[in-house]
Specification:
The complex is a heterodimer of chains A (61) and B (291).
Chain A lengths: L17 E4 L2 E4 L15 H10 L9
Antiparallel strand pairs in A: 1-2
Chain B lengths: L1 E7 L3 H12 L3 E7 L7 E3 L6 E3 L2 E2 L4 E4 L5 H4 L3 H19 L5 E2 L11 H10 L7 E4 L7 H6 E5 L7 E2 H7 L11 E5 L2 E10 L2 E8 L5 H4 L3 E4 L6 H11 L4 E8 L6 E7 L5 H6 L3 H11 L2
Parallel strand pairs in B: 1-2, 1-6, 6-7
Antiparallel strand pairs in B: 3-4, 4-5, 8-11, 9-10, 9-11, 12-13, 12-15, 13-14, 15-16
Helix pairs in contact in B: 1-10
The chains are: A alpha+beta (61), B alpha+beta (291).
Chain lengths: 61, 291
Amino acid sequence: MPENKLQATTIPVSEGSTFTSGEEDTTMALGEEGPTSPSSEDSSVFQANLESRHGGPFGAY
Amino acid sequence: MALLLAGGEEDFNLTVLAEAAQRANVELLDLRLPAAESPTFCWNLEEGGARFNAQNISATGAFIRHDVFGAMKDPRPEVSARAVAWHQTVMGWLLSQPRVRLFNRQISQTAMNKPAALVFAREAGLRIPPTVITNEAGKFSSEQIESRIAKPVAGGDYCYSLAEALGKADLRSGLAALPAIVQKRLVPPEVRIYVIGQSAFAFEVRSVSLDYRVNQDAELMLLPEIPPELALLRRLMSRLNMDFGAADFKTDPETGQLVFLELNTSPMFARFDQASGGQLCAAMIQELTMA
């Protein structure tokens, strides 16, 4: 279904993704629950994770 | 009958839900927060009532999402702190009002923990991938490096091939800084099942990427039939006290069977709603406003 193909200015499919919102390239901060997230996908956690994830899933010292 | 909507003003998931409420002629109490200004708010615990922009807050149902979009546009800590504080405030009021219909009101802490949720999923009868959670990154065999993926134990980042993840890792004496979830690599088709109270919807997510979120190259298709894993998913969600969520599955290359990956407790849904012709949000509105 081509109409469902994600376009550059449309909304992201899911959590924890990089997306283009309007005219601005932004990092999608919808990772699943983080350690300080009470109940939802938490931007602060996700951004902290991204910043600290230079080592990928195994992290860095 | 009023539906309270709370979160960030620029959250497109809330936008489509608000539009669905409008189509259903549901009165909306809009507590979405603009980026650069705050409404007046006061909740006097002795009196019990809360006011938002001088209006007493009263609702029969509510949907709330943490505002993740403000902080993406403006990474200053103040922006994140503001989103957390408003979320805690409104969620606090909602949790104190047991008569307000709210998804996942009594959700188990286990639902927020990926490893524990995997164990519970297996106990519910769902197939899960062979999984190791470890920081012993120097111990993998070459066969494992070829056939496994790695993803962060706390979420918030992408899924990588194990080889790529090890390439990024900062090891000291063979030990990584963090434990990660290491799993057998699965293959398409990838399926997401939304459970919305009594309703459920399944989508095939087609992408050539290992993690479709990286390139946002997914195509979504509403499946005409929901896979039989739904019954087991409902069993898992019942144990986790969840009535709203989206579970992700991929396929075991050897058996062709769907394998459970994770259960999102506050999933995004706007694109899936679009792919379903608005059925997702319509079901959410119905669940949140039913008498």
